Amino acid sequence: MKKWKDKEEFKKIFIRKSHVAWEKDVRDLIPNEVYQTVAFMIRDLISEDWIKTNKMYVEKKVKQVYYFSIEFLLGRLLQSNLISVDMETVCREGLHDLGWDLDAIIPEERDPGLGNGGLGRLAACFADSLAALRLPGHGCSIRYQYGLFNQRIVDGQQVELPDNWLVDGYPWEVKKVDKAVNVCFSGNAYMRPDGEGNLECVYENYHSVRAVPYDVPMVGYHNDTVNTLRLWRAEYTREDVYRVLAKGNRHEAFRYKDNVQLISRFLYPEDSTEEGRRLRLMQEYFMVSAGVQSIVRHFKQKISPNIKVFGHYVAIHINDTHPALVIPELMRIFMDEEGLPWETAWDITTEVVAYTNHTILPEAMERWSIPLFKELLPRIYLVIEELNKRWLQQVRNKNPGDEAKAREVAILWDNQVHMAHLAVLGSHSINGVAEIHSQILKESTLHAFYSCFPERFNNKTNGVSHRRWLIQSNPQLAQLIDSAIGNTWRKHPEHMIHLSAYAADTAFLEQLDQVKRIRKNILASYIKAEYDQQIDTDSVFDIQIKRFHLYKRQLLNILHILNLYYALKENPNMDIVPRTYLFGGKAAAGYGEAKMTIKLINVVSKMINGDHCLEGKLKVLFLENYNVSLAQLLFPAADVSEQISTAGKEASGTGNMKFMMNGAITLGTMDGANVEIHHEVGDDNCVIFGLRADEVMKYYVHGGYSSWDLYRTNEHIRMLLTHLVDGSLGNGNYAFQMLYDSLLDRNDEYFVLKDFDSYCEAQKNIGCRYQNHYKWLQSSAVNIAHSGFFSSDRTIRQYARDIWHIKPVEST
Ligand code: BZD
Question: Which CDD domains is this protein grouped with (predicted)?
Answer without folding.
Answer: GT35_Glycogen_Phosphorylase
